[in-house]
TrEMBL record:
Protein name: Cobalamin biosynthesis protein CobD
Keywords: Cell membrane, Cobalamin biosynthesis, Membrane, Transmembrane, Transmembrane helix
One BP term from GO: cobalamin biosynthetic process
Subcellular location: Cell membrane
Classification via InterPro entries: Cobalamin_biosynth_CobD/CbiB
Bilayer topology annotation: Multi-pass membrane protein
MF-aspect GO terms: ABC-type vitamin B12 transporter activity; threonine-phosphate decarboxylase activity
Length: 328
């Protein structure tokens, strides 16, 4: 909020960004993240000669790449906003309106609510209809695991895990950083999260080069992930969610995905996790949650949990901004 004149401006930017997300959703053509992903791929191909470089060189090149890809767009955005702030006054005028539009557009760029739910729905619909091959294809669009031989239960498990975890990454972490730093925070988080999604793997290719991207994403998502896990806990089967979060999350490799998925699985009363094939290798994963294995119908229940969590977060955001406006 310190980057804008008043909490009211941030509230208006929030409303504008949500309106764009609701009415337009993810752009089908000329999506900025698609272009950004192209830059990420080209830079990695030029710098990540993992067969020639040692550990520290690989990490240094990865850190340099993260600096270029995250810092430069954020600096450009910050310079534009700083220039507009210098021209504006305390009274709401056309420059203030531009700042609202700028920050709202940044939130729309970073927020992935419509996209996530559409992808998850595209898995649930054929799976409920009994079209397992189509559900496998739809799941493969949003996960990195091998989906070619998955059963109905495994497909449902993958869809729910992605829904819960990406809900934290693509929706709630974005809102968290938007509330703290406006559009600049939302953009910084989305770019860092995209780098982690593309480079954050413990494979020979990315183990060193992608390490900085993975750590940056861990830091940015640490607090939002736990707030998301708390929200899932409060809005579902609270006792089971809390128990799963407390006992199972520490056994998960990811410090942020563990709490989110354990709490989400417990809240839904199902069991997630378990072994899965990634990059041709079986990854040993602990079980998360409590209850039976998920079925196709449980995907819709997980989507409802994310929607209820989003409603709760938006109510809290609006209440905090209105309170800050009144007090200020």
């Amino acid at each position: 909020m310190l980057l804008l004149h008043s909490p009211l401006m941030l509230l208006l930017a929030l409303a504008f960004g949500l309106a764009l997300e609701w009415r337009i959703g993810e752009p089908r053509r000329f999506h900025p993240l698609v272009g950004f992903g192209g830059w990420v791929k080209r830079l990695e191909q030029r710098l990540n000669h993992f067969s020639r470089h040692g550990k520290y060189t690989g990490i240094a090149l990865g850190a340099f790449s993260v600096l270029i890809l995250v810092a430069i767009p954020c600096v450009i955005y910050g310079l534009i906003q700083t220039y507009l702030l210098r021209l504006s006054t305390d009274d709401f005028n056309w420059i203030s309106a531009l700042l609202v539009l700028l920050n709202g557009a940044a939130l729309w760029f970073a927020l992935g609510a419509n996209s996530l739910l559409s992808h998850v729905r595209a898995i649930a619909t054929p799976l409920i209809a009994g079209d397992v091959p189509a559900a496998r294809v739809a799941l493969s669009m949003i996960v990195s695991r091998d989906c070619s031989q998955l059963t109905e239960t495994e497909i449902a498990k993958g869809a729910i895990e992605s829904n819960l975890e990406n809900g934290a990454d693509a929706i709630f972490s974005t809102l968290f950083w938007f509330m703290l730093l406006g559009g600049l925070g939302a953009i910084a988080h989305r770019l860092a999260n995209t780098l982690d999604a593309m480079w954050g793997y413990r494979t020979p290719r990315f183990n060193y080069f992608g390490r900085c991207a993975a750590r940056l994403d861990d830091v940015l998502n640490f607090t939002p992930a736990r707030l998301t896990a708390l929200s899932y806990t409060l809005l579902g089967q609270t006792r089971a969610a809390w128990q799963s979060w407390r006992t199972q999350a520490p056994q998960w490799d990811s410090p942020n995905a563990g709490p989110v998925m354990a709490a989400g699985a417990g809240a839904l009363g199902i069991t997630l996790g378990g072994n899965a094939i990634y990059h041709g290798q079986i990854e040993q994963r602990t079980d998360l949650g409590a209850g039976p294995a998920p079925q196709a119908g449980d995907i819709a229940r997980s989507m409802m949990l994310v929607k209820k969590t989003l409603a709760l977060w938006l109510l809290c955001c609006v209440a905090l901004l209105l309170l800050a406006w009144v007090i200020g």
